[in-house]
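DM from R.C. (forwarded with permission)

"hey, sorry to bug you on a friday — could you get me a structure for this? deadline for the figure draft is monday and I only need the backbone to look sensible"
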Amino acid sequence: MTATARTVLGDIAPAELGLTNAHDHLFISSPQLPGQELDDPDAALGELHSFAALGGQAVIQWTPWGMGQRLEELPELSRRSGVHIVAATGMHQAKHYDPDELARAYTDLAAVFVQQLTSGPVRAGLIKIAGAFHHLDTHARYVLAAAAEAHHATGAPIGVHLEAGTAAAAVLGELTVTRGVAPDRIILGHLHRFPDSAVHRQVAAAGAFVGFEGPSRAHHATDWRLLEIIGALVDAGYGDRILLGGDTVTPSARSTADGPGMPYLLHTLRPRIERELGSDVAAAIFTANPARAFAAEWSAA
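My reply, with the result:
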C-alpha cells in the first residue's frame, strides 16, 4: 500500500506537501479564549496568502473535533490560496468543551474520529489529542485510547498537545507500549516549552517526531532557546525527527494583525536555521520530515 498525505482536497503524494507549517490553526474556538475565536474565513485566507508568498506550500491545522474546525470551509481556502491543508480530528483537554457535548462524544469517541478521517466530502488527515500538565489525567487516558483505536482502524498519524511541553514520556509510553502505536506515527507537540534536551533526545531516539511551535505566543519565554534546542537534537543525530509550526490561536497573533503569524516561520526562522545549522537541516525540518510525519497507509475502516 502506498502512503499518502490526506488533505482537504484529497490524498496526495507526501512529497507534494512541500514547504510545510507543521502545526497551526486557521479556525479555532474555545471557552478558554472567549472573544478570541479564529472564525473569519477572509482573515484565514489572508494568512495563507502571506505564507504562500514566501514559498509556503502546506499547513497542518491541528484544530480537533468540537473546537470550531470549520472543515467545510477549508477546501475553498486551499483552492484559493494554492496551499495544501491537512485537517485534524481528535479531542483536546476537557476544559475546552461544553460538558454536555463532551458527554455525548464520550459514548463512542473512536467512532467520531474514524468518521472524520474516512467519511464525508472533507476528511481529516491527523488525530490531535492532549496530555495534562506533567501527567495523564482520566480524560487524557480515555482520549488517548480512542485515538489509538482510530489510528489502528485508519492508519492516521497522531499529534499530541503536551501541556507546557510536559509528560512526553508518559504520553509516548501510553500510546506505544499500552496501545501499540508505532512511535514514528506520533508527533509530540510543544516540546520547546519544556526545553530539556535530554527529554527531546529520549523521545526522538524512541522514534517519535518532536514538534516545536508557537513563535506567536508572546508569554512563552522559551522561544529564544529554539535554535539552541534544535541544534542539540541535530548534533545528537535526530535532525530527521524535528517539525516546526506557528500555532497561531488568536486573531492578534496573525501576521495580518499585529503578530508574527505563519510567515514568521519562513522569513525569520528558516533563514536563521539555514545560516546556523545548514540548508540541509532546514530542508529536513520544513520539507522532508513533514512528508514522513503526515503520510499514512490509509485504511477505509
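R.C.: lifesaver. The radius of gyration is 17 Å.
me: no worries. Residues 214 and 246 are 5 Å apart (CA to CA).
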